[in-house]
Amino acid sequence: MEHILSWITAHQMMLYFILLSVFVGIEVIGGVPTVLHTPLMSGANAIHGVVIVGAIIVLLNMEEPGLLEYSLGFLAVFLGTLNVVGGFVVTDRMLEMFKKKK
61: part of which helix (H) or strand (E)? Predict the structure, then answer.
C-alpha cells in the first residue's frame, strides 16, 4: 500500500492532468449537437492512425520479442487500422447524404 501511495505522490501532477482531461472531454463531447456527432467521431477515428504508427515503431524497436509481444503489437496495428478505415467509411457515407441523386 505504501508503494502505491508513493507512486501517486510522485505522479500527482500527471494524475491531475488526466483527471482534468477526462472532465473537459466529457463536457466538450456532451456539448456537441447530435447532427455533428457522427462526422466529429469519424474524423476522430481517422486520427487514430497515430496508434498504427506508434504500434509499428514499438514492434520495430522491441528487444527479444516473444509471442505475447508480437500478438499485442499485431492486435494494436489491426485494431488501429480497423478504426481508421471505419472512420473514413462513416465519413464517406455522411458525405454521400449531401450529394444530389442522379
Answer: none
